[in-house]
Amino acid sequence: MSPSTPSPRPHTRSHAPLFAALGDETRLSLLANLNNGRQRSITDLAHNSPLTRQAITKHLRVLERARIVRCTRSGRERLYELDPLPVQSLKNYLDALSNQWDAALSRLRTFVESSPD
Amino acid sequence: MESDRAENVIAKSIELNAPVSRVWQALTEHRQFGEWFHVNLEGPFQPGQPTRGRITHPGYEHLKWEVTVQKLEPEHTFSFTWHPFAIDPAVDYSHETPTLVEFNLTPTPTGTLLRVTESGFDNIPAARRSEAFLKNSGGWAAQIHNIEAYVAEHP
């Protein structure tokens, strides 16, 4: 996300920023490391990672802005943890779209199987 | 009806008891499309061109509908980009990432096999997905699965 991206409107529950935040291989790999429910520091996440601390910090900020991760302070350290709710809401959104397709295709079936042309 | 949602794609397939020519017409003749899709379209589908209309589904009539046709390969492939289905009448879905919807038709002994896919929710061109990444982490569809499992274990 660039600095010129407008802040999300409070009354549009758009999923686009969420999809955008998740649409990056590096961020998905960070999320995989946050998936066990533990809080992790940047040092922790940088351990055994090819990424620099700066890169990790940058990607965590994107995830934080999309509210996929939460950050808390412990002394001088920032600790990150996953918030599962936004991703759950994405899943609900895709499930709802999937149901819409089922309904539309059922109507198509009725339409093509009952009328000759 | 078969469903699949792996790799950030909604995929459906349905066997229709009607010939390919009939299904093609129902998909691509804009008035017929509007009848089963519940949308009132202003004009025909043409490659590269937008087609606009109003949703006629009860409760959603205030919403505009617009697609841009990509492929129109007779009796084979029809595709368009759009903003996905409005699933909540209170939400303006024009902020959603445009996705690609593709209909594919194949003749069968009893009629037509219709496949529908909707892809591009994360706006990543397929070319940018490295195979290694897909093998290792399975993309965000797998992440959703992991997170669900996590939530189930940590209520």
Q: How much of the residues of chain A is beta strand, in percent?
A: 5-15%
> What's the average pLDDT of chain A?
80
* Overall radius of gyration of chain A: 20 Å
Q: Assign a percent range to the helix content of chain A.
A: 55-70%
Number of strands of chain B: 8
Provide a count of the helices of chain A.
Answer: 5
CATH class of the largest domain in chain B: Alpha Beta
Distance between the termini of chain B: 33 Å
- The quaternary organization reads as heterodimer
Number of strands of chain A: 3
Principal-axis shape of chain B equals globular
CATH superfamily (homologous) name of the largest domain in chain B: START domain
According to CATH, the homologous superfamily of chain A is Winged helix-like DNA-binding domain superfamily/Winged helix DNA-binding domain
- Strand order of the biggest β-sheet of chain A: 1-3-2
Q: Under CATH, the topology of the largest domain in chain B is which?
A: Alpha-D-Glucose-1,6-Bisphosphate, Chain A, domain 4
Give a structural overview:
The complex is a heterodimer of chains A (117) and B (155). With 117 residues, chain A is mainly alpha-helical. Helix content of chain A is 56%, strand content 12%. Chain A has helices at 16-22, 25-34, 42-46, 53-65, 84-114; strands spanning 40-41, 69-74, 77-82. Chain A has a 3-stranded antiparallel sheet with strand order 1-3-2. The longest helix of chain A is centred in the last third of the chain and has 31 residues, at 84-114. Chain A starts with 15 loop residues before the first helix and ends with a helix. Chain B has 2 domains: 2-123, Alpha-D-Glucose-1,6-Bisphosphate, Chain A, domain 4 (2-Layer Sandwich); 124-155, no CATH class. Chain B contains 4 helices and 8 strands; from the N terminus they run ββααββββββαα. Chain B is globular. The relative contact order of chain B is 0.18. At the A-B interface, helix 1, helix 2 and helix 5 of A face strand 2, helix 1, helix 2, strand 8 and helix 4 of B.
